[in-house]
Amino acid sequence: MNSSATSHHHQGSHIPKHFTLVLTIGIVLLGVCAVASLLFGARVIRWNELIDGLFNPNIDSFGANVVRKRVSRTIFSLFCGAALGVSGALMQSVTRNPLADPSILGVNTGASLFVVCGIALFNITTANEYIWLALLGAGITAVFVFGIGSMGRGGATPIKLVLAGAATSAALSSLVSAILIPRAYAMDQMRFWQVGSVGSASWSSITTFIPFLLIGILIAVITAPALNALALGDEAASGLGVRTGVLRLVAALGGVILCGAATALAGPIGFIGLLSTHVIRLMLGPDLRYVIPMSALAGAIILTLSDVCGRLIGNTGEVEVGIVTAFIGAPILILLAIKSKVRSL
């Protein structure tokens, strides 16, 4: 423990090696994904149509209009991916568990349940109402999972939190089904939402989302140095003057805001937080001052790329992005679970 504590301490003082390289590659990839998202879909756009759609507002051709439609979708998937990436980094740090992810800790499902209740019982239809319900659901679920995970000997151990999250998630999923099955009209509206999709993005949902994204990322950036100390263990962190209870609460709140808002607008998309944070940790090490902003970049790339892949696989229609991320994420999760038996955070 001491050797890792000292190595963590040294990391605090300098920029991780390869940081500039990883950042440059990340920004280039982000640009490539954004352009691909504008070009590819049920109809492939030509370069001149792309230019018209972006820079010539008075040209009213079919291709240019398709580009304009895809702009909101692209921005939305970049924002959602960034939110889920940062949320994953926060959840992993708070629980000190490398496999923590909003979808594994049941937070996604909690947000889903509240949105489903809103749709089925109160006829809620707007993004603005979805967000508050999803945040409430995500928050209550996070508190519940953490409470159950903290029971018994040893407090909230990483393995107990994942088990509590999985059990809670399963229970809430069946509740979602129970509410939906007798209500056909809610089922239709819900089906698209529940798969996880960025296809229905509109400018109004983006403007609704931005304040939550900014608040969540601000919390993440402010708590990053203290979360680095938390990685040394609660006693060491307390010794360094960190109020661990308050820190966990605030950082978890940031994670819940990001995950809840993204889930409200795009549906429960899993694995992004897990994947992006892991990729970044492998490249840059554990210093959260770098992991958090880079996870935002990685999450945006992964989600946008998955969305483009879903459109290309789907030939005439499209495969929803939630299906694509699960397809990519599940095998990686299995590999990580096997590896992390050897080492935990």
Which architecture per CATH? Orthogonal Bundle
Strand content: under 5%
Number of domains: 1
Computed CA radius of gyration, to the nearest angstrom: 20 Å
Can you count the helices? 14
The sequence of SSEs as H and E is HHHHHHHHHHHHHH
Number of strands: 0
Tell me roughly what share of residues is in helical segments: over 70%
**CATH homology-level superfamily:** ABC transporter involved in vitamin B12 uptake, BtuC
Contiguous uncertain segments of 5+ residues: 1-12
Overview of the molecule:
It is found in: Cell membrane. This is Iron ABC transporter. Belongs to the binding-protein-dependent transport system permease family. FecCD subfamily. The structure is a single chain. With about 350 residues, the chain is mainly α. The protein is about 75% helix and about 0% strand. It starts with a helix and ends in a 5-residue tail after the last helix. About 45% of the residues are buried. Mean pLDDT is about 85; it is low at about 1-10.
